[in-house]
Design goal:
This protein is of the alpha/beta class. The protein is built from 14 helices and 17 strands. A 7-stranded mixed sheet has the order 4-12-11-10-7-5-6, with helices on both faces. A 4-stranded mixed sheet has the order 1-2-3-15. A 4-stranded antiparallel sheet has the order 13-14-17-16, covered by helices on one side. The longest helix is centred in the last third of the chain and has 22 residues. The two termini are about 40 Å apart.
Length: about 400
């Protein structure tokens, strides 16, 4: 008999009663170091006092009014994002998939309004993940995710990640833009080479295309800068954001330059919940923390410390892991073919550490940005104990 809660997830048998900082607690008192952050979402940790107080105070006033009226909290949050980024204007929604849907619409609308409605194709990349709606699944291009949902939405052309020749070959009269994650999270924590990102910006300028960045997972300080594309010294035309911008409260956003944003006029795009007073109050509270002087410098410093620890696991356990990749506090441990990432994920949980599996047999760690070096060290120790459990030679000896 089907459960009341639709079985769309393979859930671990864990339920958390409360959280504090980087830690989660079950009802029976077990404590876990959360290096998954709800898949890179609880950016400033669990029960952050400023975020909690802000949500409580706003909830007691007004939570939702709809976008039929002005929302001062949204106006303030948009102005702050504009001041801190490349963007001239921001649209708020509820999730990353919604943000990516809106970003795709914005790119298509830009070309249609400029006399080229035939330009609606986006060049996307193998290994991408852009969401679970029909359009974002098509942008993702993963056959496993698309199976059973009818023909993919038209207009998404996929090329190998990091291959500039393939990008140039894919550009045609229908091409509208290029859509890419600066670091493929779900696809295996694969960072785009910074030179490649700069070349994408240049080719968009050369052919009159729009550069659309998916920073749903990589944004809001995750890479050590506010937005990951800042490491490449480039600016997109339009960008999607979500996950960490609400600190765990559902919030997504489309950030765009004026030449793109100006075509999303009344009637072209909308949302009921998006940008409501409660969500945007949460977003403002997160920005209070992330934009505070020295915060991102601290993230970068602790992330580099964590990276060294993760790399040491690959050095000490070459039969389990072959290396690390990623950027900032989005790090992937590449496992050997003999060890499945789901097995190491389970072994780490048994040691008290929560992680997230990713593509290409990678184990992903994406802790809250507020972790200390001591917590990074604790996570590495737990992961090392988990790796010792799964060392193939030890497993074979135990089986004799």
């Amino acid at each position: 008999m089907i459960p009341a809660l639709m079985p769309t997830y393979n859930r671990a048998d864990l339920a958390f009663e409360r959280g504090e900082g980087a830690w989660l607690y079950t009802a029976d008192g077990r404590r876990f170091l959360d290096f998954g952050s709800g898949i890179a979402t609880t950016s400033i940790g669990h029960a952050h006092p400023h975020l909690v107080k802000t949500i409580q105070e706003q909830a007691a006033k007004v939570m939702h009014v709809s976008n039929l009226y002005r929302v001062p909290q949204a106006e303030q949050l948009a102005a702050r994002h504009v001041a801190a980024s490349f963007a001239d204007s921001v649209f708020f929604c509820n999730s990353g998939a919604e943000a990516n849907e809106g970003m795709i619409k914005a790119v298509r609308k830009y070309h249609a309004e400029n006399g080229h409605p035939e330009k609606f194709h986006m060049i996307c990349f193998e290994g991408a993940f852009h969401g679970r709606t029909l359009a974002t699944l098509s942008a993702t291009g993963n056959e496993k995710y698309l199976a059973g949902f009818g023909p993919p939405v038209q207009g998404f052309d996929h090329v190998p990640f990091g291959n500039m020749n393939a990008v140039r070959d894919a550009i045609g009269p229908q091409t509208a833009g290029i859509m890419i994650e600066p670091i493929q999270g779900e696809g295996g924590v694969r960072p785009a080479d910074l030179r490649f990102l700069r070349e994408l910006r240049a080719v968009c300028d050369e052919f009159g295309l729009l550069l659309a960045l998916d920073e749903v997972q990589t944004g809001m300080g995750r890479s050590g800068k506010l937005w990951a594309h800042e490491w490449a010294g480039i600016e997109p035309d339009v960008m999607s954001a979500a996950k960490g911008i609400g600190g765990g409260f559902p919030l997504g956003a489309i950030l765009a330059k004026e030449h793109v944003a100006k075509y999303l006029k009344p009637g072209t795009h909308g949302t009921t919940y998006g940008g409501n007073p409660l969500a945007c109050s949460a977003g403002n509270a997160v920005l209070d923390v992330v934009l505070a002087p020295g915060f991102l410098d601290q993230v970068d410093r602790v992330a580099r410390h964590l990276w060294k620890g993760m790399a040491s696991i690959a050095d000490k356990h070459p039969t389990v892991a072959s290396g690390v990749r990623g950027a900032g506090m989005l790090i992937g441990l590449q496992l050997t073919p003999e060890v499945l990432n789901t097995d190491l994920q389970a072994a780490a949980a048994a040691e008290g550490l929560l992680t997230v599996a990713a593509g290409q047999n990678v184990l992903r760690v994406a802790p809250p940005l507020i972790i200390t070096e001591a917590e990074a060290d604790a996570a590495v120790e737990m992961l090392e104990r988990a790796a010792r459990r799964l060392t193939p030679a030890r497993a074979k000896e135990a089986a004799k």
